[in-house]
């Protein structure tokens, strides 16, 4: 049965529930590129019909392409895709990964980053590089938004910078944050991203260095612009 | 109460009943006659509630006034895979409050997929003087502060098991709250905790509890502290290590190997985060006695896994990553003739290309070599009808078969046909099959097979399968013992659901998400079946803001004697019989 027509007939907006972690702008781009949007076409001509996006995978992968085990065919995947315009924003462009559908494959979240990610972290540690260790094997934090009836959860480990995180949040909640400045926070926007740190204080996202943020962020909350005025160093 | 010449005195009946432990049998006893119902309910000590919303605390307490052990399950199984939004429900608090009042002698509480607050833990700690067992499986909502209350107050605690729960880990200090006089610990599982616990307190606790049989540490316990812990508890039967890595030093290694060798009763091993392969031989001394081995976090390659596994001739249960590959599974099949359960997890579930040489062949080998194999969970990237056929014929004793072909709708990679026949062979030959999870390209035919042959099937999980309502109809009308059915992303709709409405009252629950069930049909179902709760979940707004024919996002139907629940969040609506939407 052709999945495309099923989706269209039923009018299901699967995209709304898809967990997509694309680079800035990549979501729209891929909608156009892969307009069939049939994530799971089982055509015999390809071994898998999973849509490739620039889902951020383990950031460490690009560093270690030389050290990959010979058996692993992931080597083929780990190459800088310089044709991708999004590269300009990030030096360590991750290899393309499967477009992720919520809850598939059916593994518990604490198992998800077990194999490859652990290997990369081990190598990083061996090289004396800093590895950010989260709780368990991912760094899932809850994200709430003023006025939204339900929470979401995101894996902070998947992002490398504030820019990526904010783009993802703006995508997920269909809001904009505006321009960040140390003095004025997120100026000219309806919403601002805030987070609760280890001490239980609510801070404005962006004030501290990224690494410090990652290790101290317990949960995120998107608040109305006016609410953010009294936070942190403002 | 009228007594005939043929009836036994109550005390005798009670004594006889005390030997009947299975819930099903207890239920049967209670249906014999009114007096047996009465006697049974007063002497029932243990109750299992598979769906916490199927019954309410007052109803439970009224019927069973003298319970010592209660098990509750909350969220639907698909919550494990993030398909159930936060706030859905499964709150333990109302139960714990009610039980605190009604069962002062309660000894055991086991919760699965429930939301447990620190307040609830504090109530437990203070209300039950003889509290012995707390198992929180895949629960969330509490912090280490709640654990501190348990540690400080439960003098008779035997078991504290937090398996796979999400605990807000504020500090490792809580472990020190077990008083020095406390020595009754038999089982401790803290593997899910993120932070370091107070290691000194842990060592002292472990060495002063002579009956400690199970100890599952968390990743933060460093390897070089393990020997001390083991020496403090040489009677351990089950151990979960912490991180299994350290600077490679010969003295650390020999210390560890010696400590393991001293654990003559060790039967089960788990943990093994961050494994440094050169430390694996330290467990070789105990391999020949192991019956259970969980290496599902061990990111080591096939040769190291093979060396380890081939020494475990008594192994009954193996959980491992797909690094073991087909070669490793072949060795497993040759070495572990007592194997009953195998789980192979994917090391790179989101990668597009296979990263390891693990195919259907590995599973075929094990099915051939291990005559007692009855429980399988297998993630792989290719499958064929031929392989499934072979597996089915090799292992008619299979009772649990869960196959996940990672790419949805993958056909038989040899013939490019659907995998209907393969799974059909499984249900046909494995006559005692109780649990089945499907994957790959599947048409309505596979459901026809399941309905025809799956007579003992109790739980079925379906994703991205089927062509039409006929598929769902086959399952609902054919599987006589079906209790739990969970479906996602299948073209199943109203017809099959409504035609089999009565069936739903014989089941625990039905989950359908991203299918084609319309809002209108949900309303009809809710109206027709007052003893079902028909819950519609929609995160994009109230379903009645769209046409009745619109499909609902998620549907969860379950039988209940407690009526619609009152603790639903804003995105859950119950379809009840006054045909008005009730939004809580």
UniProtKB/TrEMBL annotation, chain A:
<protein>
    <recommendedName>
        <fullName>Auxin-induced protein</fullName>
    </recommendedName>
</protein>
<keyword id="KW-0927">Auxin signaling pathway</keyword>
<comment type="function">
    <text>Aux/IAA proteins are short-lived transcriptional factors that function as repressors of early auxin response genes at low auxin concentrations. Repression is thought to result from the interaction with auxin response factors (ARFs), proteins that bind to the auxin-responsive promoter element (AuxRE). Formation of heterodimers with ARF proteins may alter their ability to modulate early auxin response genes expression.</text>
</comment>
<keyword id="KW-0804">Transcription</keyword>
<keyword id="KW-0678">Repressor</keyword>
<keyword id="KW-0539">Nucleus</keyword>
<keyword id="KW-0805">Transcription regulation</keyword>
<comment type="similarity">
    <text>Belongs to the Aux/IAA family.</text>
</comment>
<feature type="region of interest" description="Disordered">
    <location>
        <begin position="23"/>
        <end position="129"/>
    </location>
</feature>
<dbReference type="InterPro" id="IPR003311">
    <property type="entry name" value="AUX_IAA"/>
</dbReference>
<dbReference type="Pfam" id="PF02309">
    <property type="entry name" value="AUX_IAA"/>
</dbReference>
<feature type="compositionally biased region" description="Low complexity">
    <location>
        <begin position="36"/>
        <end position="47"/>
    </location>
</feature>
<comment type="subunit">
    <text>Homodimers and heterodimers.</text>
</comment>
<dbReference type="InterPro" id="IPR053793">
    <property type="entry name" value="PB1-like"/>
</dbReference>
<feature type="domain" description="PB1">
    <location>
        <begin position="138"/>
        <end position="230"/>
    </location>
</feature>
<dbReference type="InterPro" id="IPR033389">
    <property type="entry name" value="AUX/IAA_dom"/>
</dbReference>
From TrEMBL, chain B:
<dbReference type="InterPro" id="IPR036047">
    <property type="entry name" value="F-box-like_dom_sf"/>
</dbReference>
<feature type="domain" description="F-box">
    <location>
        <begin position="8"/>
        <end position="49"/>
    </location>
</feature>
<dbReference type="InterPro" id="IPR006553">
    <property type="entry name" value="Leu-rich_rpt_Cys-con_subtyp"/>
</dbReference>
<dbReference type="InterPro" id="IPR032675">
    <property type="entry name" value="LRR_dom_sf"/>
</dbReference>
<dbReference type="InterPro" id="IPR041101">
    <property type="entry name" value="Transp_inhibit"/>
</dbReference>
<dbReference type="Pfam" id="PF13516">
    <property type="entry name" value="LRR_6"/>
</dbReference>
<dbReference type="InterPro" id="IPR001810">
    <property type="entry name" value="F-box_dom"/>
</dbReference>
<dbReference type="InterPro" id="IPR001611">
    <property type="entry name" value="Leu-rich_rpt"/>
</dbReference>
<dbReference type="Pfam" id="PF18791">
    <property type="entry name" value="Transp_inhibit"/>
</dbReference>
<dbReference type="Pfam" id="PF18511">
    <property type="entry name" value="F-box_5"/>
</dbReference>
<dbReference type="InterPro" id="IPR041567">
    <property type="entry name" value="COI1_F-box"/>
</dbReference>
<protein>
    <submittedName>
        <fullName>GPI-anchored mannoprotein</fullName>
    </submittedName>
</protein>
<keyword id="KW-0927">Auxin signaling pathway</keyword>
């Amino acid at each position: 049965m052709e999945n495309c027509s099923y989706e269209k007939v039923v009018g299901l907006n699967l995209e709304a529930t898809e967990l997509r972690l694309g680079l800035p702008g990549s979501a729209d781009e891929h909608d156009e590129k892969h307009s069939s949007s049939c994530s799971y076409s089982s055509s015999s001509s390809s071994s898998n019909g999973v849509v490739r996006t620039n889902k951020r995978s383990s950031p460490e992968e690009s560093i270690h392409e030389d050290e990959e085990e010979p058996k692993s065919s992931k080597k083929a995947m780990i190459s800088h895709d310089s044709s991708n315009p999004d590269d300009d924003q990030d030096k360590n462009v991750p290899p393309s990964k499967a477009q992720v559908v919520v809850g598939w494959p059916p593994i518990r979240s604490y198992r998800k980053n077990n194999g490859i990610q652990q290997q990369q972290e081990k190598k990083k540690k061996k090289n004396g590089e800093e590895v950010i260790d989260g709780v368990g094997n991912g760094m899932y934090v809850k994200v709430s938004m003023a006025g939204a009836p339900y929470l979401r959860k995101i894996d902070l480990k998947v992002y490398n910078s504030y820019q990526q995180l904010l783009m993802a949040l703006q995508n997920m909640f269909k809001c904009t944050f505006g321009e960040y400045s140390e003095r004025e926070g997120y100026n000219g926007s309806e919403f601002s991203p805030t987070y609760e740190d280890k001490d239980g204080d609510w801070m404005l996202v962006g004030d501290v260095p990224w690494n410090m943020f990652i290790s101290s962020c317990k949960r995120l909350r998107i608040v109305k612009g006016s609410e953010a005025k009294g936070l942190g160093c403002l | 109460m009228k007594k005939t010449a043929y009836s036994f005195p109550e005390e005798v009946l009670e004594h006889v009943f005390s030997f009947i432990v299975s819930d099903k049998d207890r239920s049967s006893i209670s249906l014999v006659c009114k007096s047996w119902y009465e006697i049974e309910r007063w002497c029932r000590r243990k109750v299992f509630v598979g769906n916490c919303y199927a019954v309410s605390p007052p109803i439970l307490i009224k019927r069973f006034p003298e319970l010592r052990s209660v098990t509750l399950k909350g969220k639907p199984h698909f919550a494990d895979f993030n398909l159930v939004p936060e706030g859905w429900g499964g709150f333990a608090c109302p139960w714990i409050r009610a039980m605190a009042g009604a069962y002062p002698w309660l000894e055991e509480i086991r919760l699965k997929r429930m939301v447990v607050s620190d307040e609830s833990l504090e109530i437990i700690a203070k209300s039950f003087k003889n509290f012995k067992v707390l198992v929180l499986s895949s629960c969330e909502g509490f912090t280490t502060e709640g654990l501190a209350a348990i540690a400080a107050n439960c003098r008779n605690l035997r078991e504290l098991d937090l398996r796979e729960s999400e605990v807000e880990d504020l500090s490792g200090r809580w472990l020190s709250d077990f008083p020095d006089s406390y020595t009754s610990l038999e089982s401790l599982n803290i593997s899910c905790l993120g932070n370091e616990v107070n290691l000194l307190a842990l060592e002292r606790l472990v060495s002063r509890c002579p009956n400690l049989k199970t100890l599952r540490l968390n990743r933060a316990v460093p390897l070089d502290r393990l020997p001390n812990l083991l020496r403090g508890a040489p009677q351990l039967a089950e151990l979960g290590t912490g991180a299994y890595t350290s600077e490679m030093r010969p003295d650390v290694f020999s210390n560890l190997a010696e400590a393991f060798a001293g654990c003559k009763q060790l039967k089960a091993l788990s943990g093994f985060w961050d494994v440094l392969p050169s430390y694996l031989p330290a467990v070789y001394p105990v391999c020949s006695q192991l019956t259970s081995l969980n290496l599902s976090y061990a990111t080591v390659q096939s040769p190291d896994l093979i060396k380890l596994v081939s020494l475990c001739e008594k192994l009954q249960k193996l959980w491992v990553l797909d690094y073991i590959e087909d070669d490793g599974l072949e060795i497993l099949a040759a070495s572990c003739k007592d194997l009953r359960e195998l789980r192979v997890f994917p090391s790179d579930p989101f990668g597009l290309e296979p990263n390891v040489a693990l195919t259907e062949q590995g599973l075929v080998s094990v099915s051939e070599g291990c005559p007692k194999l009855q429980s399988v969970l297998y993630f792989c990237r290719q499958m064929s009808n031929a392989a499934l056929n072979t597996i089915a014929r090799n292992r008619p004793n299979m009772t649990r078969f869960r196959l996940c072909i990672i790419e949805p709708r993958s056909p038989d990679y040899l013939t490019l046909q659907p995998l209907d026949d393969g799974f059909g062979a499984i249900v046909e030959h494995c006559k005692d099959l109780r649990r089945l999870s499907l994957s790959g390209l599947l048409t309505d035919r596979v459901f026809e097979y399941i309905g025809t042959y799956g007579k003992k099937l109790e739980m079925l999980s379906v994703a991205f399968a089927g062509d039409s309502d006929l598929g769902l109809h086959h399952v609902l009308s054919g599987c006589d013992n079906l209790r739990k059915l969970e479906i996602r992303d299948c073209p199943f709709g109203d017809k099959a659901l409504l035609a089999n409405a009565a069936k739903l009252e014989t089941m625990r629950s039905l989950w359908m998400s991203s299918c084609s069930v319309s809002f209108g049909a949900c309303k009809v179902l809710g109206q027709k079946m007052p003893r079902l709760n028909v819950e519609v979940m929609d995160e994009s707004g109230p379903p009645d803001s769209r046409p009745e024919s619109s499909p609902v996002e998620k549907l969860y139907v379950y039988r209940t004697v407690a009526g619609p629940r009152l603790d639903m969040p804003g995105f859950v609506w119950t379809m009840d019989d006054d045909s008005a939407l009730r939004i809580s």
